[in-house]
Amino acid sequence: MTPGPVEVDPRVLRAMSYPVLGQFDPEFTGLMNETMEMLREVFMTGNQWAYPVDGTSRSGIEAVLVSLIEPGDKVLVPIYGRFGHLLVEIARRCGAEVVTIEKEWGTVFAAEEIVSAIRAHQPRLVAVVHGETSTGRLQPLEGIGDACREIDALLVVDAVATIGGVKVATDEWGIDAVIGGTQKCLSVPSGLAPVTYNGRAEAKLLKRKRIERGLLTGDEAYDPAHRPILSNYLDLSQLQDYWSPARLNHHTEATTMLYALREGLRLVLQEGLEARFARHRRQEAALVAGLEAMGLALYGDPSCKMPVVTCIEIPEGVDGESVRSMLLDEFGIEIASSFGPLKGRIWRIGTMGYSCSKRNVLLTLGALEAVLLRHRCKLPAPGAAVQAALDAYRTD
Amino acid sequence: MTPGPVEVDPRVLRAMSYPVLGQFDPEFTGLMNETMEMLREVFMTGNQWAYPVDGTSRSGIEAVLVSLIEPGDKVLVPIYGRFGHLLVEIARRCGAEVVTIEKEWGTVFAAEEIVSAIRAHQPRLVAVVHGETSTGRLQPLEGIGDACREIDALLVVDAVATIGGVKVATDEWGIDAVIGGTQKCLSVPSGLAPVTYNGRAEAKLLKRKRIERGLLTGDEAYDPAHRPILSNYLDLSQLQDYWSPARLNHHTEATTMLYALREGLRLVLQEGLEARFARHRRQEAALVAGLEAMGLALYGDPSCKMPVVTCIEIPEGVDGESVRSMLLDEFGIEIASSFGPLKGRIWRIGTMGYSCSKRNVLLTLGALEAVLLRHRCKLPAPGAAVQAALDAYRTD
Fold first, then answer.
1. A61 Cβ contact partners less than 8 Å away, ≥ 6 residues apart
2. DSSP string covering A267-323, please?
3. Number of domains in chain B
4. Do residues A262 and A356 both lie within one domain?
5. Residue B5: is the preceding peptide bond cis (ω within 30°)?
6. Cβ contacts of residue A316 below 8 Å, gap of 6+?
7. d(CA B288, CA B294)
8. Contact yes or no for B215 and A89 at CB 8 A
9. How far apart are CA A59 and CA A137, in angstroms?
10. Residue ranges of the Aminotransferase class V domain (chains A, B) (predicted)?
11. Are residues B249 and B316 located together in one domain of the fold?
């Protein structure tokens, strides 16, 4: 019950036991094409390009940034938690001149604040986190894409934690490139990073590819006048050739991980995106009802709470790590701590994908209550948490 | 029967069906430590650092090069096939001033030729392919490490195609960093890239890490006077912190792929490295005997043939792609074509890891003979190939 990696559907695990096909075997390239088609649906986009980068979510973020940022480009990053800082670090390593705006952890930006910053700083690219797992907040994105288009900037969204659990409307919101995560709401093991990007982003890739035809060496390669993509492995212009009908050889696709992603996406679409988002909200409501019945305080501004991560203030005098250990050792339930300024201050419970079930919510509430009693916490009414959750399901 | 990806042992496939553990769950970090320990044995090294990068083999190559090459560094790459060119391309994107020496495809360098080039060019780093799958050649490496140490250069070896099938003596040969592949002789699906490196390589990482503490922006980041590592995802200094007892959070380890690698390594060590190398040589001998009995000519200099890849000249007048298709469609056997100047000129058969069995060699010979007869090839004596292979096993 962490915000990832989460439990994986046994059907996905079983798909990983299929024999390995050759990467250019027509049966395998057929699976690649099916995966692209399903990714378009999950990203809610008509983009031609929607495929996984072979690495963990972070590899997808870096692939998008290293491919779209030219050294010296001004990049705007709104930060409201840890993963905003990661975007800054990666963008800087790509040679960007990074401008940041910051919000206190536990809150998010009003979309208009980001729009104002875009108009004020005139960046070439804006990179923003959709769902911050470190703080459990969800950043509204509507309107930001339009502001980027006004000044011909690209909008990049890190939807690692939200894809498949919370609406990510790539086209409707005018997002130029999105990175999704597998090991969270898609409930596929970590190891692939689905990305999608539109024609505006592709135009930048193709321009840079032309530059790089005459590859430069030594210090010259770092002359801002010459700006090829500084990675081979994460170069989206090469990756799209590999995923195109031309199948230009690049890496050897991670066969087994692709089987897993394809099966995971199939299950998402079988459930239906709207039904899946509703399931995540329903489980969240029951979990929150139970936690509140225990007298626990939720962390952060409730108006921008992310439905798939619930952050709880660790009660005064309770050893948060001891509670986590006992949950794991006695009940086999893992919940998360947090990072940086929140380390030791909050617990985080994920209700994501396959883990997001009535059974898991009820068991987690019951177990947490038992562990808190063992830690001599005063609870308003022992037994109330599960009852409150059951009531929430009934009124749903 | 390609030079990768190859068949995977069912025990490895089964290991991938285990439920996903949390990345900091002590049970999972225990598996990470076991994997490091087994990688040290397979790389034949006492190095502290031996762990997988989360991506395909190419990600491991780029991680080593981007972490060890500072922009402006002179890098020497001996090229004798396609994957030498890949090392050049990646090194250039890392900002290296690349110097190359080249050998005709189908041959390799005498170690002394590389040593002379090292003395002549005085590079900071030498990157060389151990086994070239594009041409089926094996580059001798003894003596090169000593020459690198004389001038304080680092030696990086791409052992993607050889690790687990052919001896890769990291310490004995004085190699500073080695990249192995999973989907070849280790017979684990593509998606992780095991690397190892010694204290000399680590010293360079740590120096660069200190530089990068004060991360620079814009054009300054590309000033050769400031040389931080230009990737976050592939920064070995961060990866080693994640794999150290400190477990500093970086990516979310690709859980299922790690299960697969651990099981694959366990099977390698259960068989024993020497026994495994001998098995690969035995199957190669039988395959070669069978091919020669069919009257087929092997491609390349036999004195540097790589035991795990056998390249065959496509006979005059035969459509190589039609033969490959019929082998796949009628017999379910995939063999490979090749790249660049060898496209359409040779077939390549891999005898790697789990695929490298008597059964597979005999079936491939029988099937190839049948398909060549269908293509109206004149064979010296139909039926001779399998007989010759059986004889080779008997005299073994």
1. A86, A87, A90, A158, A160, A179, A193, B233
2. HHHHH-HHHHHHHHHHHHHHHHHHHHHTTPPBPS-GGGB-TTEEEEEPPTT--HHHH
3. 2
4. no
5. yes
6. none
7. 10
8. yes
9. 23
10. 25-337
11. no
Pair (A237, A309) in one structural domain? no
Q: CB contacts < 8 Å between A and B, how many?
A: 237
Separation of first and last alpha carbons in chain B: 22
User: Does any domain span residue B303?
Assistant: yes
Chain A residue closest to B229 (CA)? A93
Examine the domain organization and report whether A14 and A83 are in the same domain: yes
| Half-sphere exposure (Cβ direction) of B20: Cα atoms closer than 13 Å | 32
Tens-binned pLDDT, residue by residue, of chain A (396 aa):
999 999 999 999 999 999 999 888 899 999 999 999 999 999 999 999 999 999 999 999 999 999 999 888 999 999 999 999 999 999 998 989 999 999 999 999 999 999 999 999 999 999 999 999 999 999 999 999 999 999 999 999 999 999 999 999 999 999 999 999 999 999 999 999 999 999 999 999 988 877 665 554 555 444 544 567 889 999 999 999 999 999 998 999 999 999 999 999 999 999 999 999 999 999 999 999 999 999 999 999 999 999 999 999 999 999 999 999 999 999 999 999 998 899 999 999 999 999 999 999 999 999 999 999 999 999 999 899 999 999 999 986
**The CATH number of the domain where B76 resides is what?**
3.40.640.10
Note if the bond before A5 is cis, omega within 30 degrees: yes
CA distance A190 to A257: 9
Domain extent for A363: 273-395
Sequence-distant (6+) residues with CB within 8 A of A241 are A248, A250
Is residue B116 assigned to a domain?
Answer: yes
| Residue B308 structure tokens | 């795990």
What would the DSSP string read from start to end of A362-373? HHHHHHHHHHHH
Q: Which residue has the tokens 């203030």?
A: A313
Give the bridge partners for A199, in sequence order: none
Measure in Å the smallest separation between the Cα of A254 and chain B Cα atoms: 4
Q: What is the DSSP letter of A229?
A: -
Q: Helix (H, G, I), strand (E, B), or coil: what is residue B157?
A: strand
**B107 lies in some domain:** yes
Instruction: Say if residues B227 and B220 touch (Cβ distance below 8 Å).
Output: no
Q: Is residue B3 part of a domain?
A: no
Domain closes at, from A269, A288, A316: A269
| CATH code, domain carrying B301 | 3.90.1150.10
Q: Do the Cβ atoms of B235 and A112 come closer than 8 Å?
A: no
For residues B331 and B187, membership in a common domain is answered with no
**Residue at a domain's end among B216, B244, B269:** B269
* A107/A211 same-domain check: yes
Among residues A60, A57, A93, A63, which one has the least CA distance to residue A75?
A: A93
Interface check for B215 against chain A (CB to CB < 8 A): the answer is yes
Interface of A with B in 20-79 (CB under 8 A): 20-23, 25, 54-59, 61-62, 66, 71-72
B365 and B385 within one domain? yes
- The answer to whether A80 and A207 are in contact (CB under 8 A) is no
Whether the CB-CB separation of A190 and A5 falls below 8 Å is answered with yes
Q: Do B217 and A13 touch (CB under 8 A)?
A: no
Domain match, B265 and B280 both: no
B348 annotated ligand binder: yes
Amino acid at A396: D
Query: ipTM for the complex?
Result: 0.90
